[in-house]
Write a structure and sequence with these properties.
It is built from one helix and nine strands; from the N terminus they run βββββββββα. By secondary structure, the chain is mostly beta strands.
């Protein structure tokens, strides 16, 4: 049986082979060196449990896939190993992550 290499360190979870993000299985610390797709990546920031980490470097306009499905669009440069969240990722489903004052117009809309 051929040997296969895991796409990422055990503390990161790949949900689907085509995903360009990984999920933190534990709290990760800035400066921690991890292996992602055979390359050593040093985490630029702390990553909380359950948050997304970029599998590869991403540019504004790139689409992010999780579970093999589109979840959002990158809004700023993201290095491999950097956290993906509201500061660099916009949802492709709702106009805001907080569902604040503008949510009423969206929820009541026909689109």
């Amino acid at each position: 049986m051929p040997t296969t290499t895991a796409p990422a360190a055990p503390c990161l979870l790949l949900m689907s082979p085509e995903d360009n993000c990984l999920i933190a299985r534990t709290k990760l610390a800035a400066g921690e060196a991890l292996t992602i797709d055979g390359a050593t990546v040093v985490l630029p920031e702390d990553v909380p449990l359950g948050y997304k980490v970029a599998r590869t470097a991403l540019r504004p306009g790139d689409k992010v896939l999780r579970y093999g499905a589109l979840i959002g669009t990158v809004t700023a440069e993201v290095a491999a190993g950097a956290m993906l969240h509201t500061h660099n990722l916009a949802s492709d489903y709702i106009p805001t992550y907080t569902l604040g004052a503008d949510a009423h117009s969206f929820i009541g809309s026909t689109h």
